[in-house]
C-alpha cells in the first residue's frame, strides 16, 4: 500500500475493485466504516454482489477480465468533465513529456512488436530529449505528442458504448461510479483505490494496476491522506516475503537478479553500470547490492573477488510458478521443496500440477499438516503409489503462534510477534529448519573445493551455535552494520559500495539502529500522530505515506490544509509534518529537483507513461478464454503473454464452454484450506464445495438451489452444490446474453470438509510481467448431475 490501513479513515471515497475486503481484509472495513460515518462514499466494482458491495453506496457489476476498459472510461470521464488535478498532473507526472515519433499505436499493437518472440522493443517508446539528455516538456499539456494528449487519443477509442458492450456494466451504474470517484480530483478531497486478486490474477493483471495508478495520478490522489493505491496483500507476511525476494526476479529490497542473458551482468561492475540509473534514489543501487553481498558472504566478500558477486546464480529463464511446474511436467526438475504451500489445491490447472509432482525424484514438504500436495502419491489422492517413484519427506513445521519473529503487513509495517506456546512433537520453526539445513550443508562441503562447494563455504552463516539460531542476530544482519566500527547502521542513507557496510535488505535498514532498539517491537499507539509513527516500523525509514512530498504544491505548501502530510518550513529550512518526509529533508522547493516528488524514479515524476511488457498505456485485451472477440482491436489476447502449448495448458472454445467463470474466497476458509478444513468448527460453517449461479442460468439449465452440479472446462471438471443466487446476473455483452458463475477454491480431498478444487478448471497462463495465473476469468459449462 502507498498509505496504510488506518489511513483509510481519512478518505472521501473508496473504490473497491477486484477485492472483497469485508470478507478477506475485514480490519480494513473498520477504517472504512469510520470514513463513512464522516460522509465518505464506498464504491464496489465486482462481477458478483459481495458483502463489500452490500456495504457500499454505489455498486457496478462487470464481466471478469474487463477492468481496463472500465478504468479507461473513468479516465475519459475525469478528463472530459474537467475533474483532474491539472497542476499535479503537469508538474508531478510525465504527462508533459513529448514522445518521439517512433512511438505508435495501431489496432491493438504498440510499435516495436516482434510477433515471433511475443516481445516488444521498448526503445521505440522513448521521450524527446534536450542536449543534456533531459526529457522535453510542454507544461500546458497541449502538444499533440505530449504523453497527456497521446493518452487522450489512446482512450478516445474507449467510448461509453464500447465499454459497456465489453464489460456488460449497465451504463447508468458505470456513470454513477465515475461520478462518485472522480469527484475526489478536487483539491482538498482524496480517494483511495483498494484492490487485490480480482485485479491482479489476469493475463493483464499488471496493466489493470497501472490503469488504477494512472487514474489516481490524474486525480492528484497519490501522496495524500485517504488516497493512494491500497494493494491489499494476502497471506500474513506476503509483503515481507516479496520484500525479501520471494519473487524469482528479485534479490532482497527489489534489486533485480543478475541474468545470464544480459552480457553486462557477467561482472559486478557491468551489472552496476547497466542497472543503475544516473538520477533518482536508485542511483544508490551499487551500495545496496554490495552491502547485501557483505551480509551474505561476510569477510569472504572482498573488492578483489567482486564481493562474491559470482556466487549469485545467474538464471536465463522465467522461474515463475507456472514455468517451474511446466519444467517438472517435462521431467526437467529432480527435487522440490514445498515450504508452506499446497499447489495440488491452489495451483492453476491443479490436475496437471499433481501429475508434475510424480515426475520428481524427491519432494520435501514443510507444513503443519499433511496436505493434498505432500500426499499426492496416495490412493486417497486417486493415485497409484506403485507407479510413483518420488521419495517424499514431510517435515512438521511450527505454527505462527509457536515461534518468534516479524511479519510485514500491507502497510509495510514490520511487526514483531512473540511466541505464545511451545511447539508440539517434532515440529520446528521454519527458521530453525533452514538454519539446520545451512549448517549441515556447510559441514558436508567443508573440505571440498569444487564450483558447487565454493559458494557454500563462502556463505557467512553466523547466527549462533547449535540448532537454535539467534533470531536477534538475524534481525541485526537485516538492518546492517558499519563494518569499520561494528556498530548497527542508523539507516540506508549510510550504506556504502566499498565493502565497509553490510545490510541484508536495504529497505529495512534503520529498523534496528542501535543495540536494544528493535523498532519492529514498538507498540505505542497513543503518541506518533495520525500516522501512528510509534507503532511498529514501516519501511522505508518509518515512512507511512510514501510519495508524501506530493501532498504539498511545488512551492512546498500543502495543496489543502485538510489533506496535509508534510510542508516546507522556510524558517527551519526543512520539511516538517506528521510523517517522515519522502524527500531529502533539507532540500528546498527552490533547489534543483526540489519540485520532483517521485524520488525513486529517474525523472522525479510519476509515470502516466511507463513501459510494461505489453505497452506503455494499458490496453484492453480479452482473457485467454473469452466469450467474445475484442471490441477494441484485432488483438484478442495480450500480445506479450507466454503461451504454453499442448496438454499442459488446454484451451477451451466459447462454443463448448460459453459461460464465464471466476474463483474467490469466503471468510470461513483460508486459501487451499489446510488451515481451515482441519478445524472442525470452520469445516462445519462452510462444509461443501459450491458454485454460485444466477437465477436466470439456473432456469435455463434446469438447476435448483442445492442441486449437485458438474462444472466443466477444457482442463477438468468439479462437482459442487448449486447456490442459486441474485448475486450474479447475466450480462449483455456485444448484444448477446453471457452468463457468469463463481466458486471458492478452498476445497480438496483432505481434512474434515472435503470437495473438489476449483483449480481443476483454471488454465496455465499468466500475466505478461509477473506470470501470476489467470485464476479470475476462464470459460466453463455447467450441468445438473445425473
Ligand atoms: N477469509 C479469508 N481471507 C483471506 C484469504 C482467504 O483465503 N480467506 N486469503 C488471503 C490472500 S492470500 C489474498 S491474496 C487475499 C485476496 O483478497 P481478494 O482479492 O479480496 O480475494 P478474492 O475473493 O479471491 O477476490 C476478490 C473479488 O474479486 C472479484 N473478481 C473476480 N474477477 C474479477 C474481475 O475481473 N474484476 C474485478 N473487478 N473483480 C473480480 C471476485 O468476485 C471477488 O469478490 O485475501 C486474503 N484474505
Ligand atoms: N483458483 C484460485 N486459485 C488460487 C487463488 C485464487 O484466487 N483462485 N489465489 C492464489 C493466491 S493469492 C495464493 S496466496 C495462493 C496460496 O496458495 P498456497 O500458499 O499453496 O496455499 P495455502 O493454503 O496458503 O498454503 C499454505 C500452507 O502452509 C502451511 N502453513 C501454515 N503456517 C505455516 C508455517 O508457519 N510454516 C510452514 N512451513 N507452513 C505453514 C499451511 O498448513 C498450508 O498447507 O493460492 C492461489 N490460488
Ligand atoms: Mo494471496
UniProtKB/TrEMBL annotation:
Indicate the secretion signal residues: none
The record ties this protein, via CDD domains, to: MopB_CT_Formate-Dh-Na-like
Name of the protein:
Formate dehydrogenase-N subunit alpha
User: Source taxonomy lineage?
Assistant: Bacteria, Bacillati, Bacillota, Bacilli, Bacillales
Under PROSITE patterns, the record lists:
MOLYBDOPTERIN_PROK_3
Task: Return any one Pfam family short name.
Answer: Molybdopterin
Which InterPro entries does this entry report, sorted A to Z? Answer: Asp_de-COase-like_dom_sf (IPR009010), Formate-DH-alph_fdnG (IPR006443), MoPterin_dinucl-bd_dom (IPR006657), Mopterin_OxRdtase (IPR006656), Mopterin_OxRdtase_prok_CS (IPR006655)
Give any single GO term for biological process.
anaerobic respiration
Family recorded in the similarity comment? Belongs to the prokaryotic molybdopterin-containing oxidoreductase family.
In this chain the Molybdopterin dinucleotide-binding domain maps to 661-778
One GO MF term attached to the UniProt entry: electron transfer activity
Q: What are the Molybdopterin oxidoreductase domain coordinates in residue numbering? A: 2-439
Q: Which organism is it from?
A: Neobacillus piezotolerans
Q: Which UniProt keywords apply?
A: 4Fe-4S, Iron, Iron-sulfur, Metal-binding, Oxidoreductase, Periplasm
Q: Which residues form a coiled coil?
A: none
| SUPFAM superfamilies for the chain | ADC-like, Formate dehydrogenase/DMSO reductase, domains 1-3
Q: Where does it reside?
A: Cell envelope
Q: Which cofactor does it need?
A: [4Fe-4S] cluster
Entry GO terms, CC: cell envelope
Amino acid at each position: 500500500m502507498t498509505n496504510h490501513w488506518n489511513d483509510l479513515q481519512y478518505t472521501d471515497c473508496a473504490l473497491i475493485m477486484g477485492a472483497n475486503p469485508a470478507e478477506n481484509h475485514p480490519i480494513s472495513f473498520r477504517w472504512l466504516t469510520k470514513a463513512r460515518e464522516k460522509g465518505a462514499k464506498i464504491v464496489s466494482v465486482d462481477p458478483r454482489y459481495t458483502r463489500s458491495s452490500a456495504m457500499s453506496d454505489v455498486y457496478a457489476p462487470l464481466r471478469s477480465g474487463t477492468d481496463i476498459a472500465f478504468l479507461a472510461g473513468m479516465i475519459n470521464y475525469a478528463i472530459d468533465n474537467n475533474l483532474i488535478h491539472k497542476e499535479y498532473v503537469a508538474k508531478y507526472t510525465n504527462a508533459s513529456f513529448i514522445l518521439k515519433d517512433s512511438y505508435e499505436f495501431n489496432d491493438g499493437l504498440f510499435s516495436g512488436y516482434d510477433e515471433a518472440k511475443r516481445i516488444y522493443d521498448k526503445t521505440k517508446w522513448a521521450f524527446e530529449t534536450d542536449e543534456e539528455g533531459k526529457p522535453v516538456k510542454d507544461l500546458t499539456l497541449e502538444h499533440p505528442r505530449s504523453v497527456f494528449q497521446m493518452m487522450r487519443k489512446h482512450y478516445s477509442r474507449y467510448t461509453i458504448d464500447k465499454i459497456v458492450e465489453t464489460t456488460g456494466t449497465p451504463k447508468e451504474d458505470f456513470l454513477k461510479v465515475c461520478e462518485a470517484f472522480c469527484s475526489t480530483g478536487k483539491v482538498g478531497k482524496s480517494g483511495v483505490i483498494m484492490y487485490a486478486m480480482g485485479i491482479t490474477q489476469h493475463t493483464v493483471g499488471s496493466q489493470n494496476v497501472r490503469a488504477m495508478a494512472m487514474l489516481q495520478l490524474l486525480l492528484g490522489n497519490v501522496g495524500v491522506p485517504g488516497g493512494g493505491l491500497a494493494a491489499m496483500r494476502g497471506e500474513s507476511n506476503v509483503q515481507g516475503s516479496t520484500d525479501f525476494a520471494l519473487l524469482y526476479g528479485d534479490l532482497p529490497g527489489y534489486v533485480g537478479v543478475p541474468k545470464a542473458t544480459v552480457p553486462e551482468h557477467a561482472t559486478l561492475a557491468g551489472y552496476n553500470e547497466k542497472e543503475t540509473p544516473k538520477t533518482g534514489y536508485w542511483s544508490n543501487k551499487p551500495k545496496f547490492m554490495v552491502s547485501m553481498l557483505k551480509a551474505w558472504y561476510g569477510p569472504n566478500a572482498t573488492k578483489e573477488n567482486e564481493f562474491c558477486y559470482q556466487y549469485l546464480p545467474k538464471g536465463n529463464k522465467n522461474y515463475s510458478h507456472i514455468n517451474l511446474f511446466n519444467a517438472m511436467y517435462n521431467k526437467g526438475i529432480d527435487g522440490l521443496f514445498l515450504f508452506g504451500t499446497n499447489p495440488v489445491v491452489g495451483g492453476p490447472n491443479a490436475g496437471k500440477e499433481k501429475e508434475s509432482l510424480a515426475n520428481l525424484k524427491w519432494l520435501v514438504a514443510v507444513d503443519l499438516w499433511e496436505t493434498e500436495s505432500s500426499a499426492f502419491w496416495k490412493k486417497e489422492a486417486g493415485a497409484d503409489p506403485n507407479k510413483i517413484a518420488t521419495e517424499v519427506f514431510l517435515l512438521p513445521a511450527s505454527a505462527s503462534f509457536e515461534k518468534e519473529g516479524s511479519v510485514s503487513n500491507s502497510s509495510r509495517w514490520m511487526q514483531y510477534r512473540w511466541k505464545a506456546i511451545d511447539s508440539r512433537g517434532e515440529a520446528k520453526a521454519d527458521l530453525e529448519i533452514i538454519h539446520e539445513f545451512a549448517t549441515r550443508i556447510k559441514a558436508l562441503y567443508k573440505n571440498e573445493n569444487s564450483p558447487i562447494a565454493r559458494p557454500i563455504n563462502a556463505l557467512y552463516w553466523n547466527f549462533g551455535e547449535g540448532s537454535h539460531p539467534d533470531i536477534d542476530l538475524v534481525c541485526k544482519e537485516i538492518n546492517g552494520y558499519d563494518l569499520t566500527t561494528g556498530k548497527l547502521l542508523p539507516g540506508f542513507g549510510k550504506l556504502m559500495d566499498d565493502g565497509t557496510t553490510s545490510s541484508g535488505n536495504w529497505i529495512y535498514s534503520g529498523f534496528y539502529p542501535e543495540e536494544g532498539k528493535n523498532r519492529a517491537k514498538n507498540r505505542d499507539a497513543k503518541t506518533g500522530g495520525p500516522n501512528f509513527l510509534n507503532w511498529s516500523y514501516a519501511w522505508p525509514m518509518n515512512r507511512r505515506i510514501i510519495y508524501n512530498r506530493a501532498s504539498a504544491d511545488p512551492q512546498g505548501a500543502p495543496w489543502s490544509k485538510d489533506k496535509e502530510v508534510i510542508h516546507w518550513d522556510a524558517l527551519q529550512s526543512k520539511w516538517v509534518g506528521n510523517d517522515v518526509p519522502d524527500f531529502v529533508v533539507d532540500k528546498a522547493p527552490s533547489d534543483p529537483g526540489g519540485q520532483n516528488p517521485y524520488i525513486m524514479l529517474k525523472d522525479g515524476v510519476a509515470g502516466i507513461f511507463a513501459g510494461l511488457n505489453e505497452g506503455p498505456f494499458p490496453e484492453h485485451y480479452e482473457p485467454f478464454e473469452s466469450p467474445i472477440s475484442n471490441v477494441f482491436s484485432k488483438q484478442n489476447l495480450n500480445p506479450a503473454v507466454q503461451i504454453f502449448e499442448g496438454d499442459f495448458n488446454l484451451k477451451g472454445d466459447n462454443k463448448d464452454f460459453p459461460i464465464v467463470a471466476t474463483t474467490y474466497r469466503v471468510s470461513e476458509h483460508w486459501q487451499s484450506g489446510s488451515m481451515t478444513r482441519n478445524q472442525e468448527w470452520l469445516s462445519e460453517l462452510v462444509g461443501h464445495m459450491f458454485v454460485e449461479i444466477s437465477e436466470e442460468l439456473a432456469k435455463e439449465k434446469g438447476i435448483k438451489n442445492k442441486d449437485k452440479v458438474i462444472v466443466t472446462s477444457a482442463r477438468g471438471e468439479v462437482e459442487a452444490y448449486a447456490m442459486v443466487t441474485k448475486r450474479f446476473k447475466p450480462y449483455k455483452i456485444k448484444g448477446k446474453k453471457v452468463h457468469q458463475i463463481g466458486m471458492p477454491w478452498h476445497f480438496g480431498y483432505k481434512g474434515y470438509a472435503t470437495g473438489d478444487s476449483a483449480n481443476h478448471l483454471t488454465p496455465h497462463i499468466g500475466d505478461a510481467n509477473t506470470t501470476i495465473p489467470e485464476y479470475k476469468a476462464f470459460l466453463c459449462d455447467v450441468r445438473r448431475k445425473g
